[in-house]
Structures are given as C-alpha cells and as structure tokens.
Design brief:
Layout (H helix, E strand, L loop, with lengths): L8 H12 L14 H10 L5 E5 L14 H10 L4 E5 L9 H10 L4 E4 L15 E5 L6 H10 L3 E6 L2 H9 L4 E5 L11 H6 L8 E5 L5 H9 L4 E4 L1 H4 L8 H9 L10
Parallel strand pairs: 1-2, 1-8, 2-3, 3-4, 4-5, 5-6, 6-7, 7-8
Helix pairs in contact: 3-4, 3-10
The structure holds indole-3-glycerol phosphate.
The site of indole-3-glycerol phosphate (IGP) has 15 residues, from strand 8 and helix 9.
C-alpha cells in the first residue's frame, strides 16, 4: 500500500474500516454482463454512456438519500443510464452488498461494485459485473486484476494520475477510470481527466469519474476522450431529497443530442 499520510482524514478512516471488514465465504463465480457492449448500445441509441451511481451519501455529500436502491436504479435506467454503480461501503456511504444484489436482480444493465477492495478475499462478498480496484490503495494491482478476472468480474481500475495509469496498464487493465476527485483533499478538478486521458491506449475503455454535474461537463469529458461517464452526486442530488433521478440522468445522457437545449 502506498503511504496514506497525505490522504484526507475521511479517506483514512474509510480504509481502516475496509481493513476491518471480513471477506466472503468461498470464491464467487460471476457471469458478467459486458460493459463495452452496454456502452456501445447506448452510443448506437444516441445516448451519452452514463454509469449512474446509487450512492446514499458520501463524505462530501450535502445530505443522505434513504430511497430504496432498487427504485433509484430503475429510475436511472429509465433515464437512459447505460450501467449502474452501487456503493457497497457501509460506514461512510451507507451502502451494502445486499443493495447491490437487489439492484442487479432488478435491472438488466451491467452493475459495478463500488467499494474499497484491498485484498483478494474482499472480492468474494457479492456478485457484480464490474469490480472497482483503486490503484492508489493496492500494492499488488497485477494480482488483484487477475484475481478479479478469475472470478468473472470485469475489473475497473481507478487512477488519478499518469503514474497510476502506467501501473494500471502494466497490470493488464482493459477498463480504466480516471477519478477527478483528489483523495488527498477530496476536491474535484475536471482537468485531471483531461491530463491523463491522452496517455490512455485506444483499446482501453476509458471512464471519466466524479465531478460531472452538467451537460456541459459531460460534453467536456467526452471531448477529452471519455467512453463513459461515472456520475453520482449530480444524479442523486443529495441536498434535495425528492430530486427526480430519472430526469437528472436523462439530462446527462442527452447531453450530445441536438434536440436538447444546450446548457
Ligand atoms: O458523485 P460524483 O462526484 O459524481 O462521483 C461519482 C464517483 O466517481 C465517486 O463516487 C467515486 C469515484 N471513485 C470512488 C471510489 C470510492 C467511492 C466513491 C468513488
């Protein structure tokens, strides 16, 4: 593990909690729904491929949304989401593996497990189509990418700078997410994606993560080379408990359509 001394306190405490959580019993064996196919289907349909995130709260959220995760996920798919991400981290995001299982049963798009998986046995907690691995938090990235694939997961390797990207590519990552949120200060800067994206090989599926809040942001990330956008806060709209998740998703999924008012 890389040094955590410069991480935000909330992130340090998330990692401590992750280390304390137990892994699963046995080894999962997943028959994954293809993310590249789901992204291509959205493109063919004229939608910006959006991975919409069921995130009840977060250390940076304005509040908590306690809505049923299944209802949220269905609303996101109705708004044109190409895939769904579900936070399963319990202590700082109010997520749960059970919520992911219910969501995956209820929708037919690929579902990403969003958590802080630090070791191999942390993968065996729940089935999902994609599994997040955060380059910064794991030493043996090669081993974890291989272990995820052995279980049938499509690993999504998250990076924040070019050095981490190099590690991801060396580890054989085929799906890479560039997180615009700096885990040291928890601040978002969309330039992060713009600076890393040019270094990403063409055959890698590239996802822009975090801080995308408007159709203009969506177009900006697409112009910089994003194959898909991972969006939580702007869709969950934590500060406004009754915000329309379908409509919030649709605004972003339609960001490139000519009939949409260009905001
Ligand atoms: O809510 P946002 O800014 O749209 O971000 C979504 C997603 O990128 C973010 O939740 C995230 C990115 N990487 C993570 C790792 C763990 C937990 C959460 C995340």
């Amino acid at each position: 593990m890389n040094s955590n001394t410069e991480l935000a306190p909330a992130v340090r405490s998330i990692l401590e909690a992750a280390r304390d959580r137990s892994g699963g019993d046995g080894v999962v064996d997943v028959d994954a729904r293809s993310l590249p196919d789901a992204l291509a289907a959205a493109e063919a349909d004229g939608r910006v491929p959006v991975i919409a995130e069921v995130k009840p709260t977060s250390p940076t959220a304005a509040g908590t949304r306690a809505d049923d995760p299944v209802e949220l996920a269905r609303a996101m798919v109705a708004g044109g989401a190409a895939a769904i991400s579900v936070l399963t981290e319990p202590t700082h995001f109010d997520g749960s593996p059970a919520a992911l299982t219910r969501v995956r049963e209820a929708v037919d798009v690929p579902v990403l497990r969003k958590d802080f998986v630090l070791e191999e046995d942390g993968m065996d907690v729940v089935d999902a189509d994609l599994l997040l691995l955060i380059a910064r938090f794991v030493d043996d990235l090669d081993g974890l990418v291989a272990a995820a694939r052995d279980r049938g997961f499509q690993p999504l390797v998250e990076v924040h700078d070019r050095a981490e990207l190099e590690r991801a590519i060396d580890a054989g990552a085929e799906i890479v997410g560039v997180n615009n949120r700096d885990l040291a200060r928890l601040e978002v800067d969309l330039e992060t994606f713009e600076s890393v994206a040019p270094e990403v090989p063409d055959d890698v599926t590239l996802i822009a993560e975090s801080g995308i809040s408007s159709p203009a942001d969506a177009r900006r990330m697409r112009a910089a080379g994003a194959d898909a956008l991972l969006v939580g806060s702007a869709i969950m709209d934590h500060g406004a408990g009754d915000s329309d998740v379908t409509e919030n998703t649709r605004r972003l999924a339609r960001a490139e359509s000519t009939e949409t008012e260009q905001i």
